[in-house]
Write a structure and sequence with these properties.
alpha/beta, globular
Length: 296
Amino acid sequence: MGTRSERRGRMRGTRSWGRPCCPSLSGLLSELGTKGEHMRRHSFEHDGLVFSFLDAGGEGQPLLALHGHWMGGSDFSGLAADLGPGWRLIALDQRGFGETDHNAPHDIPAYLSDAIALLDHLSIDRPVPVLGHSFGGVVACHLAAARPDRVSALIIEDIGVTLDDDSSAHVANWGGVFRLREDLEDRLGPRLSPYLQNSIRRVADGWTLNFEPAEFLLSERAINGDHRGVWLQSRCPALVVSGSESRICDPAELQAMAQSRENTAFIQLRAGHSVHIDAPAEFARHLRAFLEDSCA
């Protein structure tokens, strides 16, 4: 997601996450799959849908995390472990993704309503910091602008403010059920498969993704557009995090985005688009420092 950079040898409007840039493949799979015990899964009803979310629990300060397209709340499990016990990470499976109901309407007001409904369900009425990765970063920007009474700080992970994406050709053959898990992983390809391990689920006849490619495209279209005005509306402290090896966003664009807004810091880590997965310890260290400074 995000504005495509031709300087990185890519065509505008198509998606290519690039190689897992920092950890080894085994390290990346370990980061995705071994820390889930630090979060417990729950559900609630809103807008005629059943939503699923993960909650680290405990006495720490709440931190709401919103995932990127193709991913889910479980991709923040490692971060929850790294931030605890001082921070209680709460990760929503957004509508159409993960264990939340699919086949839902997709638009930005709905995404904002979902996030507020989760906070209300947990009886969290004071402002909380919101971390948004990619698609989740767009939602977080709009949430801070529309509901400043609920957002105390923003962390925007590798997403810009001008989007014009069309991934239809890329995901066209991802749908359906695959007899073997390896068949689905081969279809995703060696670059993406390691990042989407938490998005693969077992069904009666084999293996499938926990999102529908056609529904993802509705969500992609829902967030396309120019969000610069929304980005500048909010006044809370913000941190923009860039992955130096990202094939989704141009780091120079993200740095300019940060410089355009008051009370906003910028960092770049050696990582791809999923900075919190590629550089988990460094991401957590910078995030903790920002949270302690802005939410003390």
